[in-house]
Amino acid sequence: MEVHFEPALQAKLDQIARESGRDAADLVHDAVAGYVDAFADTRQMLDARYDDMKSGKVKMIPGDEAFARLMAKTEAERQRSR
Q: CA 28 from chain center: how many Å?
């Protein structure tokens, strides 16, 4: 496989490779491997959540209620950290 980057991104990659003493291809490989692992983990979690909703194991709540809960939780955390 061959990958081409826009010049600005290629320059950043080359700089990081020089500074780290690693080959640019190794850096790209590591970055893609990390992304693929994270994507697979996310996909697995979403599939499990979907299965839980479909089976009735978890109860869905409306988006506005979820947002309100999140905002309340955020505000409570802010109050605790003061």
A: 17
CB 27 within 8 A of CB 20: yes
Return the structure tokens found at 11.
Answer: 């320059």
CB atoms within 10 A of CB 56: 8
Q: Where are the domains of the chain?
A: 7-80
Write the DSSP string, 2-65: -----HHHHHHHHHHHHHHT--HHHHHHHHHHHHHHHHHHHHHHHHHHHHHHHHTSS----HHH
pLDDT in tens, 12-58: 999 999 999 999 999 999 999 999 999 999 999 999 999 999 999 99
**What's the first-to-final CA gap in the chain, in angstroms?**
52
pTM (whole model) above 0.70: no
